[in-house]
Design a protein that fits this description.
Blueprint: H1 7-38, H2 44-75, E1 83-85, H3 87-97, H4 99-102, E2 107-110, E3 118-120, H5 122-138, E4 146-153, E5 156-162, H6 195-205, E6 209-214, E7 220-227
Parallel strand pairs: 2-4
Antiparallel strand pairs: 1-3, 4-5, 5-7, 6-7
Helix pairs in contact: 1-2, 2-6, 3-5, 5-6
Length: 229
């Protein structure tokens, strides 16, 4: 019997192929640069060039990952595998991935001790929190805390990430989740405009929602709502 692939399966296979073709040479480049970084460099100019190339390779790798994730969201080929998860583990994994950015920054995490396991795709939810926490760290002063709060509201789970940065202009609050839409920042760091759009796609694939608001007293509040069942 001949099996015919669905359009979604074809799109997913194509994206997997593209991902492999782009990332294989990039992994080799990053490996070579990492080796060069371990060498004792007496020439400061050479060292600066190697460090800059390594940083740009990492940035390119993140951009490729974001583009492929966004393509999967739009092609409806995002694989969501729900398993009972400890939300504390999800948050902890996200913070571990951001350990270099967090450094000595104070991150306050509040989770009810009686919170039951929640049906989530662990890998995808870690990815969402990495995006949200990275934004909070990037767009707020180093001496201000990041507040992560988890609570259950009836049949829903709410996760909020709040910072004390400059906030988001009121007219941009709903548009920040649009693909390629970027809020101008004084630092000039505009990003790719894909992170929040990917978060929205992953959360919606879980049957949830995500919203942005300006925090009382200054800063940004991102709220993620997910079904508990």
């Amino acid at each position: 019997m001949q099996l015919i692939a669905t359009p979604a399966q074809v799109a997913d296979a194509f994206l997997d192929s593209i991902s492999n073709e782009l990332r294989t040479p990039l992994v080799s480049i990053q490996g070579a640069l990492s080796y060069l970084q371990q060498e004792k460099q007496t020439d400061p100019t050479r060292r600066a060039l190697i460090d800059n190339a390594a940083e740009e390779a990492m940035r390119l790798n993140r951009f490729i990952g974001n583009m492929l994730d966004m393509a999967r969201v739009e092609a409806h080929t995002l694989r969501v595998e729900l398993t009972p998860c400890d939300v504390a583990d999800v948050i902890g994994s996200a913070l571990e991935r951001l350990s270099d950015q967090v450094n000595d920054r104070r991150v306050n995490v509040t989770i009810p001790p009686t919170l039951a396991l929640v049906p989530l795709d662990f890998v995808l939810m870690v990815q969402v929190l990495v995006h949200l926490l990275d934004n909070a760290l990037k767009y707020s002063a180093p001496n201000t805390p990041i507040d992560v709060r988890v609570r259950s509201l009836g049949s829903q789970l709410e996760i909020s990430i709040a910072d004390r940065g400059i906030g988001i202009p009121r007219h941009d609050l709903t548009r920040v989740f649009d693909k390629f839409y970027r809020v101008p920042r004084p630092s000039g760091d505009l990003g790719t405009g894909l992170g929040l759009a990917i978060c929205k796609g992953i959360i919606q694939a879980h049957g949830g929602s995500i919203h942005a608001n300006n925090r009382n007293g200054g800063g940004t509040l991102i709220t993620v709502t997910l079904p508990l069942s």
